[in-house]
Recover the amino acids of this structure.
Protein backbone atom coordinates (compact mmCIF):
# COMPACT_ATOMS: atom_id res chain seq x y z
CA UNK A 1 0.00 0.00 0.00
CA UNK A 2 1.21 3.59 -0.54
CA UNK A 3 4.14 4.49 1.71
CA UNK A 4 3.69 8.24 1.79
CA UNK A 5 1.58 8.54 4.95
CA UNK A 6 -0.62 6.65 7.34
CA UNK A 7 -3.76 8.22 5.94
CA UNK A 8 -3.74 6.68 2.44
CA UNK A 9 -2.63 3.36 3.96
CA UNK A 10 -5.62 3.18 6.30
CA UNK A 11 -7.94 4.40 3.57
CA UNK A 12 -6.54 1.76 1.20
CA UNK A 13 -7.42 -0.96 3.72
CA UNK A 14 -10.92 0.45 4.00
CA UNK A 15 -11.21 0.67 0.22
CA UNK A 16 -9.98 -2.90 -0.20
CA UNK A 17 -12.64 -4.20 2.17
CA UNK A 18 -15.34 -2.19 0.42
CA UNK A 19 -14.31 -3.27 -3.09
CA UNK A 20 -13.91 -6.91 -2.01
CA UNK A 21 -17.36 -6.94 -0.44
CA UNK A 22 -18.88 -5.38 -3.55
CA UNK A 23 -17.13 -7.86 -5.85
CA UNK A 24 -18.09 -10.88 -3.74
CA UNK A 25 -21.65 -9.61 -3.70
CA UNK A 26 -21.66 -9.68 -7.50
CA UNK A 27 -19.95 -13.05 -7.81
CA UNK A 28 -21.37 -14.84 -4.75
CA UNK A 29 -23.93 -16.92 -6.64
CA UNK A 30 -21.41 -17.93 -9.30
CA UNK A 31 -18.94 -19.05 -6.63
CA UNK A 32 -21.68 -20.88 -4.71
CA UNK A 33 -22.59 -22.73 -7.91
CA UNK A 34 -19.11 -24.26 -8.34
CA UNK A 35 -18.71 -25.27 -4.67
CA UNK A 36 -18.12 -29.04 -4.80
CA UNK A 37 -15.24 -29.46 -2.33
CA UNK A 38 -14.87 -30.45 0.49
CA UNK A 39 -18.68 -30.64 0.69
CA UNK A 40 -21.00 -29.81 -2.21
CA UNK A 41 -23.21 -27.54 -0.13
CA UNK A 42 -23.16 -24.51 -2.45
CA UNK A 43 -22.23 -21.86 0.12
CA UNK A 44 -18.58 -20.89 -0.43
CA UNK A 45 -19.41 -17.55 -2.07
CA UNK A 46 -21.88 -16.70 0.66
CA UNK A 47 -19.45 -17.67 3.43
CA UNK A 48 -16.68 -15.55 1.90
CA UNK A 49 -19.08 -12.62 1.52
CA UNK A 50 -20.18 -12.81 5.16
CA UNK A 51 -16.59 -13.14 6.37
CA UNK A 52 -15.46 -10.08 4.43
CA UNK A 53 -18.58 -8.24 5.57
CA UNK A 54 -17.48 -8.79 9.17
CA UNK A 55 -13.96 -7.60 8.32
CA UNK A 56 -15.30 -4.47 6.62
CA UNK A 57 -17.59 -3.70 9.56
CA UNK A 58 -14.64 -3.90 11.96
CA UNK A 59 -12.63 -1.46 9.84
CA UNK A 60 -15.58 0.93 9.68
CA UNK A 61 -15.88 0.75 13.47
CA UNK A 62 -12.25 1.80 13.85
CA UNK A 63 -12.78 4.75 11.51
CA UNK A 64 -15.93 5.76 13.41
CA UNK A 65 -14.08 5.61 16.73
CA UNK A 66 -11.37 7.93 15.42
CA UNK A 67 -13.91 10.35 14.04
CA UNK A 68 -15.64 10.42 17.43
CA UNK A 69 -12.30 11.02 19.10
CA UNK A 70 -11.56 13.99 16.86
CA UNK A 71 -8.87 12.39 14.68
CA UNK A 72 -9.40 11.96 10.96
CA UNK A 73 -8.37 8.37 10.29
CA UNK A 74 -6.75 5.48 12.14
CA UNK A 75 -3.22 4.29 11.46
CA UNK A 76 -2.58 1.61 8.85
CA UNK A 77 -1.71 -0.79 11.68
CA UNK A 78 -5.05 -0.22 13.42
CA UNK A 79 -6.94 -0.67 10.15
CA UNK A 80 -5.30 -3.94 9.09
CA UNK A 81 -5.56 -5.40 12.58
CA UNK A 82 -9.25 -4.52 12.69
CA UNK A 83 -9.75 -6.14 9.30
CA UNK A 84 -8.09 -9.36 10.46
CA UNK A 85 -9.95 -9.43 13.78
CA UNK A 86 -13.29 -8.79 12.09
CA UNK A 87 -12.68 -11.66 9.68
CA UNK A 88 -11.66 -13.95 12.54
CA UNK A 89 -14.77 -13.40 14.64
CA UNK A 90 -17.10 -13.41 11.63
CA UNK A 91 -15.58 -16.28 9.64
CA UNK A 92 -18.15 -18.59 8.08
CA UNK A 93 -17.55 -22.11 6.80
CA UNK A 94 -14.33 -23.77 5.71
CA UNK A 95 -13.55 -21.08 3.12
CA UNK A 96 -14.23 -18.15 5.43
CA UNK A 97 -12.09 -19.64 8.18
CA UNK A 98 -9.13 -20.06 5.83
CA UNK A 99 -9.65 -16.53 4.50
CA UNK A 100 -9.55 -15.18 8.07
CA UNK A 101 -6.12 -16.77 8.53
CA UNK A 102 -4.89 -15.38 5.20
CA UNK A 103 -5.90 -11.87 6.29
CA UNK A 104 -4.38 -12.40 9.73
CA UNK A 105 -1.07 -13.37 8.16
CA UNK A 106 -1.09 -10.28 5.94
CA UNK A 107 -2.09 -7.99 8.79
CA UNK A 108 0.80 -9.12 10.98
CA UNK A 109 3.27 -7.90 8.34
CA UNK A 110 1.47 -4.80 7.05
CA UNK A 111 0.93 -3.49 10.58
CA UNK A 112 4.70 -3.05 10.81
CA UNK A 113 5.08 -1.12 7.56
CA UNK A 114 3.95 -0.81 3.95
CA UNK A 115 5.46 -0.84 0.49
CA UNK A 116 6.20 -3.44 -2.15
CA UNK A 117 8.61 -5.51 -0.07
CA UNK A 118 6.20 -5.62 2.86
CA UNK A 119 3.41 -6.74 0.53
CA UNK A 120 5.58 -9.60 -0.77
CA UNK A 121 6.26 -10.73 2.79
CA UNK A 122 2.60 -10.28 3.77
CA UNK A 123 1.36 -12.52 0.95
CA UNK A 124 4.00 -15.13 1.73
CA UNK A 125 3.15 -15.22 5.43
CA UNK A 126 -0.57 -15.39 4.61
CA UNK A 127 -0.05 -18.49 2.47
CA UNK A 128 2.17 -20.18 5.06
CA UNK A 129 -0.15 -19.47 7.99
CA UNK A 130 -3.23 -20.60 6.08
CA UNK A 131 -1.61 -23.90 5.16
CA UNK A 132 -0.47 -24.46 8.75
CA UNK A 133 -4.02 -23.87 10.01
CA UNK A 134 -5.43 -26.75 7.94
CA UNK A 135 -4.98 -30.17 9.53
CA UNK A 136 -4.58 -31.99 6.19
CA UNK A 137 -3.80 -29.56 3.34
CA UNK A 138 -5.00 -30.62 -0.11
CA UNK A 139 -3.62 -29.33 -3.40
CA UNK A 140 -5.96 -27.80 -5.92
CA UNK A 141 -7.69 -25.72 -3.25
CA UNK A 142 -7.45 -22.11 -2.08
CA UNK A 143 -4.20 -23.09 -0.30
CA UNK A 144 -2.55 -23.83 -3.65
CA UNK A 145 -3.87 -20.59 -5.15
CA UNK A 146 -2.53 -18.62 -2.16
CA UNK A 147 0.88 -20.32 -2.50
CA UNK A 148 1.12 -19.47 -6.20
CA UNK A 149 -0.01 -15.89 -5.60
CA UNK A 150 2.73 -15.44 -2.99
CA UNK A 151 5.33 -17.01 -5.28
CA UNK A 152 4.34 -14.70 -8.15
CA UNK A 153 4.54 -11.69 -5.85
CA UNK A 154 8.03 -12.80 -4.84
CA UNK A 155 9.10 -12.82 -8.50
CA UNK A 156 7.99 -9.22 -9.07
CA UNK A 157 10.82 -6.94 -10.18
CA UNK A 158 13.18 -5.69 -7.45
CA UNK A 159 11.96 -2.37 -6.11
CA UNK A 160 8.41 -2.97 -7.33
CA UNK A 161 5.83 -0.90 -5.50
CA UNK A 162 2.77 -2.22 -3.70
CA UNK A 163 0.52 -2.05 -6.76
CA UNK A 164 2.99 -3.95 -8.93
CA UNK A 165 3.39 -6.68 -6.32
CA UNK A 166 -0.38 -6.94 -5.93
CA UNK A 167 -0.81 -7.27 -9.71
CA UNK A 168 1.81 -10.03 -9.82
CA UNK A 169 0.02 -11.89 -7.03
CA UNK A 170 -3.31 -11.52 -8.82
CA UNK A 171 -1.94 -12.88 -12.10
CA UNK A 172 -0.27 -15.78 -10.27
CA UNK A 173 -3.54 -16.61 -8.53
CA UNK A 174 -5.48 -16.53 -11.82
CA UNK A 175 -3.07 -18.99 -13.43
CA UNK A 176 -3.12 -21.27 -10.39
CA UNK A 177 -6.91 -21.25 -10.22
CA UNK A 178 -7.25 -22.44 -13.82
CA UNK A 179 -5.00 -25.37 -12.96
CA UNK A 180 -6.96 -26.57 -9.93
CA UNK A 181 -9.18 -29.10 -11.78
CA UNK A 182 -6.06 -30.97 -12.82
CA UNK A 183 -4.97 -31.22 -9.18
CA UNK A 184 -8.19 -32.21 -7.43
CA UNK A 185 -10.35 -35.08 -8.77
CA UNK A 186 -13.58 -33.65 -7.33
CA UNK A 187 -13.14 -30.50 -9.42
CA UNK A 188 -12.22 -32.48 -12.53
CA UNK A 189 -15.34 -34.61 -12.31
CA UNK A 190 -17.54 -31.54 -11.88
CA UNK A 191 -15.69 -29.59 -14.58
CA UNK A 192 -15.13 -26.53 -12.35
CA UNK A 193 -12.31 -24.62 -10.68
CA UNK A 194 -11.98 -24.45 -6.89
CA UNK A 195 -14.61 -22.17 -5.35
CA UNK A 196 -12.40 -20.97 -2.48
CA UNK A 197 -9.60 -20.18 -4.89
CA UNK A 198 -12.08 -18.34 -7.10
CA UNK A 199 -12.99 -16.19 -4.13
CA UNK A 200 -9.33 -15.45 -3.37
CA UNK A 201 -8.79 -14.28 -6.95
CA UNK A 202 -11.73 -11.92 -6.46
CA UNK A 203 -10.19 -10.53 -3.27
CA UNK A 204 -6.80 -10.03 -4.89
CA UNK A 205 -8.46 -8.24 -7.80
CA UNK A 206 -10.05 -5.87 -5.28
CA UNK A 207 -6.63 -5.37 -3.66
CA UNK A 208 -5.12 -4.38 -7.00
CA UNK A 209 -7.85 -1.80 -7.52
CA UNK A 210 -7.55 -0.47 -3.95
CA UNK A 211 -3.79 0.17 -4.11
CA UNK A 212 -3.52 1.24 -7.76
CA UNK A 213 -6.85 2.94 -8.42
CA UNK A 214 -7.48 0.68 -11.40
CA UNK A 215 -9.14 -2.69 -11.74
CA UNK A 216 -6.88 -5.54 -13.01
CA UNK A 217 -6.06 -5.30 -16.72
CA UNK A 218 -7.12 -8.91 -17.17
CA UNK A 219 -10.27 -9.53 -15.13
CA UNK A 220 -10.83 -13.18 -14.37
CA UNK A 221 -13.15 -15.13 -16.64
CA UNK A 222 -14.20 -18.65 -15.74
CA UNK A 223 -12.54 -21.11 -18.11
CA UNK A 224 -14.36 -23.67 -20.22
CA UNK A 225 -15.43 -26.70 -18.19
CA UNK A 226 -12.48 -28.95 -17.43
CA UNK A 227 -12.57 -32.32 -19.21
CA UNK A 228 -10.44 -34.88 -17.35
CA UNK A 229 -8.22 -37.31 -19.22
CA UNK A 230 -9.45 -40.77 -18.18
CA UNK A 231 -6.66 -43.22 -17.39
CA UNK A 232 -8.90 -46.24 -16.96
CA UNK A 233 -7.62 -46.54 -13.39
CA UNK A 234 -10.50 -45.64 -11.14
CA UNK A 235 -8.30 -45.70 -8.06
CA UNK A 236 -5.83 -43.29 -9.64
CA UNK A 237 -8.60 -40.86 -10.49
CA UNK A 238 -9.73 -40.85 -6.86
CA UNK A 239 -6.36 -40.86 -5.19
CA UNK A 240 -7.48 -40.56 -1.60
CA UNK A 241 -6.28 -37.00 -1.12
CA UNK A 242 -9.85 -35.78 -0.55
CA UNK A 243 -12.13 -36.44 2.42
CA UNK A 244 -14.91 -38.94 1.95
CA UNK A 245 -17.41 -36.11 1.60
CA UNK A 246 -15.79 -35.01 -1.67
CA UNK A 247 -18.52 -34.88 -4.30
CA UNK A 248 -20.20 -38.05 -3.04
CA UNK A 249 -22.51 -36.56 -0.47
CA UNK A 250 -20.97 -38.88 2.16
CA UNK A 251 -18.72 -37.92 5.05
CA UNK A 252 -19.53 -36.40 8.44
CA UNK A 253 -23.05 -35.21 9.10
CA UNK A 254 -22.34 -31.91 10.88
CA UNK A 255 -20.29 -28.77 10.43
CA UNK A 256 -19.26 -27.30 13.80
CA UNK A 257 -17.84 -23.79 14.11
CA UNK A 258 -17.13 -21.76 17.23
CA UNK A 259 -14.96 -19.01 18.60
CA UNK A 260 -12.69 -20.15 21.41
CA UNK A 261 -10.79 -18.34 24.13
CA UNK A 262 -7.86 -20.63 25.01
CA UNK A 263 -4.09 -20.81 25.31
CA UNK A 264 -1.75 -22.22 22.68
CA UNK A 265 -1.10 -25.53 24.46
CA UNK A 266 -4.80 -26.18 24.96
CA UNK A 267 -5.42 -25.47 21.28
CA UNK A 268 -2.69 -27.91 20.25
CA UNK A 269 -4.48 -30.62 22.27
CA UNK A 270 -7.80 -29.56 20.76
CA UNK A 271 -6.43 -29.94 17.21
CA UNK A 272 -5.41 -33.52 17.92
CA UNK A 273 -8.76 -34.36 19.51
CA UNK A 274 -10.84 -32.86 16.71
CA UNK A 275 -8.65 -34.41 14.02
CA UNK A 276 -9.54 -37.81 15.45
CA UNK A 277 -13.26 -36.93 15.46
CA UNK A 278 -13.72 -35.79 11.85
CA UNK A 279 -12.22 -33.99 8.85
CA UNK A 280 -11.95 -30.55 7.21
CA UNK A 281 -10.34 -29.30 10.43
CA UNK A 282 -9.21 -25.68 10.34
CA UNK A 283 -8.14 -23.79 13.47
CA UNK A 284 -7.14 -20.15 12.97
CA UNK A 285 -6.29 -17.24 15.22
CA UNK A 286 -3.88 -16.67 18.08
CA UNK A 287 -3.20 -14.49 21.11
CA UNK A 288 -5.89 -16.30 23.06
CA UNK A 289 -8.73 -16.06 20.48
CA UNK A 290 -9.36 -18.79 17.90
CA UNK A 291 -11.91 -19.76 15.29
CA UNK A 292 -12.49 -23.51 15.11
CA UNK A 293 -14.06 -25.31 12.13
CA UNK A 294 -14.54 -29.07 11.71
CA UNK A 295 -16.85 -31.61 10.04
CA UNK A 296 -17.92 -34.40 12.42
CA UNK A 297 -20.61 -36.98 13.06
CA UNK A 298 -20.70 -36.22 16.80
CA UNK A 299 -21.30 -32.46 17.09
CA UNK A 300 -21.62 -32.68 20.85
CA UNK A 301 -18.16 -34.20 21.19
CA UNK A 302 -16.66 -31.40 19.08
CA UNK A 303 -18.24 -28.77 21.33
CA UNK A 304 -17.21 -30.63 24.49
CA UNK A 305 -13.63 -30.69 23.23
CA UNK A 306 -13.82 -26.91 22.96
CA UNK A 307 -15.15 -26.63 26.52
CA UNK A 308 -12.21 -28.70 27.78
CA UNK A 309 -9.78 -26.44 25.90
CA UNK A 310 -11.23 -23.11 27.00
CA UNK A 311 -14.38 -21.04 26.53
CA UNK A 312 -16.23 -21.71 23.26
CA UNK A 313 -18.95 -19.30 22.16
CA UNK A 314 -20.87 -18.27 19.03
CA UNK A 315 -21.32 -21.99 18.44
CA UNK A 316 -22.85 -22.86 15.05
CA UNK A 317 -23.80 -26.41 14.15
CA UNK A 318 -25.08 -27.14 10.65
CA UNK A 319 -26.60 -30.48 9.67
CA UNK A 320 -25.39 -31.26 6.16
CA UNK A 321 -28.45 -33.34 5.32
CA UNK A 322 -30.48 -30.15 5.54
CA UNK A 323 -27.75 -27.86 4.25
CA UNK A 324 -27.13 -29.83 1.05
CA UNK A 325 -30.62 -28.97 -0.12
CA UNK A 326 -29.02 -25.67 -1.12
CA UNK A 327 -26.88 -27.51 -3.69
CA UNK A 328 -29.74 -29.77 -4.76
CA UNK A 329 -32.87 -27.63 -4.40
CA UNK A 330 -36.00 -29.38 -3.20
CA UNK A 331 -39.41 -27.95 -2.45
CA UNK A 332 -39.08 -26.63 1.10
CA UNK A 333 -40.97 -24.12 3.15
CA UNK A 334 -39.01 -21.36 4.84
CA UNK A 335 -40.15 -19.54 7.95
CA UNK A 336 -39.13 -16.50 9.96
CA UNK A 337 -39.27 -16.49 13.75
CA UNK A 338 -39.37 -13.02 15.31
CA UNK A 339 -39.04 -11.88 18.93
CA UNK A 340 -41.32 -8.87 19.44
CA UNK A 341 -41.66 -6.46 22.40
CA UNK A 342 -45.42 -5.91 22.11
CA UNK A 343 -48.63 -7.53 20.93
CA UNK A 344 -49.16 -4.90 18.24
CA UNK A 345 -45.94 -5.79 16.47
CA UNK A 346 -46.73 -9.47 17.00
CA UNK A 347 -49.88 -9.06 14.92
CA UNK A 348 -47.98 -7.13 12.25
CA UNK A 349 -45.32 -9.85 11.97
CA UNK A 350 -47.89 -12.63 11.89
CA UNK A 351 -49.64 -10.89 9.01
CA UNK A 352 -46.29 -10.98 7.20
CA UNK A 353 -46.18 -14.74 7.73
CA UNK A 354 -43.75 -14.87 10.65
CA UNK A 355 -43.94 -16.95 13.81
CA UNK A 356 -43.68 -14.65 16.84
CA UNK A 357 -42.34 -14.89 20.37
CA UNK A 358 -43.47 -12.18 22.79
CA UNK A 359 -40.73 -10.67 24.97
CA UNK A 360 -42.52 -9.76 28.18
CA UNK A 361 -41.12 -6.84 30.27
CA UNK A 362 -38.39 -8.18 32.52
CA UNK A 363 -38.87 -11.75 31.21
CA UNK A 364 -36.82 -12.31 28.05
CA UNK A 365 -37.58 -15.59 26.29
CA UNK A 366 -35.38 -18.57 27.12
CA UNK A 367 -33.62 -20.66 24.50
CA UNK A 368 -36.20 -23.42 24.94
CA UNK A 369 -39.01 -20.98 24.10
CA UNK A 370 -37.23 -19.88 20.93
CA UNK A 371 -36.46 -23.49 19.97
CA UNK A 372 -40.14 -24.34 20.46
CA UNK A 373 -41.12 -21.46 18.16
CA UNK A 374 -38.73 -22.80 15.51
CA UNK A 375 -40.42 -26.21 15.79
CA UNK A 376 -43.87 -24.60 15.58
CA UNK A 377 -42.85 -22.94 12.34
CA UNK A 378 -42.78 -26.42 10.71
CA UNK A 379 -40.10 -25.42 8.22
CA UNK A 380 -36.87 -26.93 6.95
CA UNK A 381 -35.27 -23.48 6.84
CA UNK A 382 -35.76 -20.85 9.53
CA UNK A 383 -34.49 -17.30 9.90
CA UNK A 384 -34.44 -16.19 13.55
CA UNK A 385 -34.66 -12.48 14.43
CA UNK A 386 -33.92 -12.00 18.18
CA UNK A 387 -34.37 -8.19 18.01
CA UNK A 388 -32.35 -7.70 21.20
CA UNK A 389 -28.57 -7.69 21.65
CA UNK A 390 -28.96 -9.40 25.01
CA UNK A 391 -30.60 -12.39 23.33
CA UNK A 392 -27.72 -13.26 21.00
CA UNK A 393 -26.48 -16.19 23.11
CA UNK A 394 -30.02 -17.39 23.78
CA UNK A 395 -30.82 -17.30 20.07
CA UNK A 396 -27.59 -19.15 19.22
CA UNK A 397 -28.45 -21.89 21.73
CA UNK A 398 -31.97 -22.25 20.30
CA UNK A 399 -30.60 -22.46 16.77
CA UNK A 400 -28.16 -25.15 17.85
CA UNK A 401 -31.01 -27.21 19.31
CA UNK A 402 -33.02 -26.89 16.09
CA UNK A 403 -30.05 -27.80 13.87
CA UNK A 404 -29.59 -30.99 15.84
CA UNK A 405 -33.06 -31.97 14.54
CA UNK A 406 -32.17 -31.25 10.92
CA UNK A 407 -33.55 -27.71 10.65
CA UNK A 408 -31.37 -25.21 8.81
CA UNK A 409 -31.33 -22.06 10.96
CA UNK A 410 -29.73 -18.66 10.44
CA UNK A 411 -29.67 -16.14 13.28
CA UNK A 412 -29.59 -12.55 12.06
CA UNK A 413 -28.16 -10.41 14.90
CA UNK A 414 -30.95 -7.83 15.03
CA UNK A 415 -30.62 -5.66 18.13
CA UNK A 416 -33.99 -3.91 18.02
CA UNK A 417 -37.53 -4.51 16.78
CA UNK A 418 -37.18 -1.89 14.04
CA UNK A 419 -34.23 -3.81 12.59
CA UNK A 420 -36.39 -6.92 12.59
CA UNK A 421 -39.14 -5.05 10.74
CA UNK A 422 -36.60 -3.94 8.11
CA UNK A 423 -35.31 -7.49 7.69
CA UNK A 424 -38.80 -8.96 7.45
CA UNK A 425 -39.73 -6.39 4.80
CA UNK A 426 -37.14 -7.76 2.35
CA UNK A 427 -37.71 -11.45 3.15
CA UNK A 428 -38.42 -13.47 -0.01
CA UNK A 429 -38.97 -17.20 0.59
CA UNK A 430 -38.73 -17.91 -3.14
CA UNK A 431 -35.02 -17.10 -3.42
CA UNK A 432 -32.06 -19.12 -2.14
CA UNK A 433 -31.72 -19.42 1.62
CA UNK A 434 -28.30 -17.79 1.86
CA UNK A 435 -29.30 -15.02 -0.55
CA UNK A 436 -32.36 -14.33 1.59
CA UNK A 437 -30.27 -14.25 4.77
CA UNK A 438 -27.73 -11.88 3.22
CA UNK A 439 -30.49 -9.51 2.04
CA UNK A 440 -32.24 -9.55 5.42
CA UNK A 441 -28.96 -9.05 7.26
CA UNK A 442 -28.06 -6.11 5.04
CA UNK A 443 -31.47 -4.49 5.59
CA UNK A 444 -31.19 -4.89 9.35
CA UNK A 445 -27.62 -3.59 9.41
CA UNK A 446 -28.62 -0.51 7.40
CA UNK A 447 -31.22 0.43 10.04
CA UNK A 448 -30.17 2.57 12.99
CA UNK A 449 -32.39 2.16 16.03
CA UNK A 450 -33.49 4.26 18.96
CA UNK A 451 -36.03 4.21 21.75
CA UNK A 452 -37.37 6.48 24.45
CA UNK A 453 -37.34 5.41 28.08
CA UNK A 454 -38.29 6.97 31.40
CA UNK A 455 -35.47 7.31 33.93
CA UNK A 456 -36.29 5.47 37.15
CA UNK A 457 -33.72 7.27 39.32
CA UNK A 458 -30.87 9.75 39.22
CA UNK A 459 -28.00 8.29 37.27
CA UNK A 460 -24.88 9.00 35.22
CA UNK A 461 -25.35 8.45 31.48
CA UNK A 462 -23.30 9.01 28.36
CA UNK A 463 -25.33 12.21 27.84
CA UNK A 464 -24.88 13.53 31.40
CA UNK A 465 -26.75 13.18 34.67
CA UNK A 466 -30.44 12.30 34.48
CA UNK A 467 -33.08 12.64 37.18
CA UNK A 468 -35.94 10.29 37.98
CA UNK A 469 -38.76 10.93 35.51
CA UNK A 470 -36.54 12.35 32.76
CA UNK A 471 -37.14 11.08 29.23
CA UNK A 472 -34.07 9.35 27.85
CA UNK A 473 -33.39 9.04 24.13
CA UNK A 474 -31.21 6.02 23.44
CA UNK A 475 -29.57 5.74 20.00
CA UNK A 476 -28.00 2.40 19.09
CA UNK A 477 -28.20 1.42 22.76
CA UNK A 478 -26.52 4.49 24.29
CA UNK A 479 -28.21 7.45 25.98
CA UNK A 480 -27.81 10.37 23.57
CA UNK A 481 -30.54 12.80 24.70
CA UNK A 482 -31.99 13.70 28.11
CA UNK A 483 -35.31 15.53 27.87
CA UNK A 484 -38.33 16.58 29.90
CA UNK A 485 -41.10 15.33 27.63
CA UNK A 486 -41.64 12.64 25.00
CA UNK A 487 -42.31 14.87 21.94
CA UNK A 488 -39.31 17.13 22.48
CA UNK A 489 -36.95 14.27 23.20
CA UNK A 490 -38.21 12.34 20.19
CA UNK A 491 -37.62 15.31 17.88
CA UNK A 492 -34.03 15.68 19.11
CA UNK A 493 -33.39 11.97 18.65
CA UNK A 494 -34.77 12.05 15.12
CA UNK A 495 -32.68 15.08 14.20
CA UNK A 496 -29.51 13.40 15.45
CA UNK A 497 -30.23 10.19 13.59
CA UNK A 498 -31.15 11.93 10.33
CA UNK A 499 -28.12 14.23 10.47
CA UNK A 500 -26.09 11.41 8.93
CA UNK A 501 -28.73 10.70 6.30
CA UNK A 502 -31.75 8.47 5.93
CA UNK A 503 -34.58 7.59 3.57
CA UNK A 504 -37.22 6.02 5.80
CA UNK A 505 -38.22 6.64 9.42
CA UNK A 506 -40.14 3.93 11.27
CA UNK A 507 -42.08 4.88 14.41
CA UNK A 508 -43.54 2.24 16.75
CA UNK A 509 -45.85 3.74 19.37
CA UNK A 510 -46.50 2.13 22.73
CA UNK A 511 -50.01 1.48 24.05
CA UNK A 512 -50.08 4.54 26.36
CA UNK A 513 -48.38 6.93 23.95
CA UNK A 514 -50.75 9.68 22.72
CA UNK A 515 -51.70 8.95 19.10
CA UNK A 516 -51.15 12.62 18.25
CA UNK A 517 -47.42 12.06 18.75
CA UNK A 518 -47.23 10.18 15.45
CA UNK A 519 -48.67 13.11 13.51
CA UNK A 520 -46.38 15.54 15.33
CA UNK A 521 -43.24 13.59 14.53
CA UNK A 522 -44.27 12.85 10.96
CA UNK A 523 -44.75 16.57 10.36
CA UNK A 524 -41.38 17.31 12.00
CA UNK A 525 -39.64 14.88 9.65
CA UNK A 526 -41.48 16.21 6.61
CA UNK A 527 -40.61 19.83 7.38
CA UNK A 528 -36.99 19.34 8.41
CA UNK A 529 -35.79 16.46 6.27
CA UNK A 530 -36.75 16.46 2.61
CA UNK A 531 -37.36 13.18 0.77
CA UNK A 532 -37.60 11.17 3.99
CA UNK A 533 -40.71 9.01 4.35
CA UNK A 534 -42.30 8.01 7.65
CA UNK A 535 -44.04 4.73 8.50
CA UNK A 536 -46.05 4.38 11.71
CA UNK A 537 -46.97 1.22 13.62
CA UNK A 538 -48.79 0.71 16.90
CA UNK A 539 -46.82 -1.67 19.08
CA UNK A 540 -49.47 -2.23 21.76
CA UNK A 541 -48.23 -3.19 25.23
CA UNK A 542 -44.47 -2.60 25.10
CA UNK A 543 -41.97 -1.25 27.61
CA UNK A 544 -40.79 1.74 25.56
CA UNK A 545 -43.26 4.54 24.75
CA UNK A 546 -41.61 4.95 21.33
CA UNK A 547 -39.29 2.92 19.11
CA UNK A 548 -37.54 4.63 16.19
CA UNK A 549 -35.78 3.22 13.15
CA UNK A 550 -33.94 5.09 10.39
CA UNK A 551 -32.99 3.28 7.17
Amino acid sequence: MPQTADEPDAVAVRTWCSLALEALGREREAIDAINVYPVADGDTGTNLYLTVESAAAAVEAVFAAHETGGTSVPSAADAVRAMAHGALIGARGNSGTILAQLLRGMAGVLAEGTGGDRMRLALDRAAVWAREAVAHPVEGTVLTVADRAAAAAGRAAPGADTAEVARAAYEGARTALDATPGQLPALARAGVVDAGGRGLVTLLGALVEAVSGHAPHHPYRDPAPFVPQHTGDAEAEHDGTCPAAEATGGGPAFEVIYLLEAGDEAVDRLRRRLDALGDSLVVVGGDGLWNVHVHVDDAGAAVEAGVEAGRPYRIRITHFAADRSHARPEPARRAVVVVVPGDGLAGLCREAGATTVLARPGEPPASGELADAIRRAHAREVVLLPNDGELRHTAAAAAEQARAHGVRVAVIPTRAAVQGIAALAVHEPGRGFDEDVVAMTSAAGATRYAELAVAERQSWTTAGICQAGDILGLIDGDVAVIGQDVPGTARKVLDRMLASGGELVTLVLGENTPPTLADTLEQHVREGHLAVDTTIYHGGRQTAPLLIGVE
About this structure: The chain is about 50% helix and 20% strand.
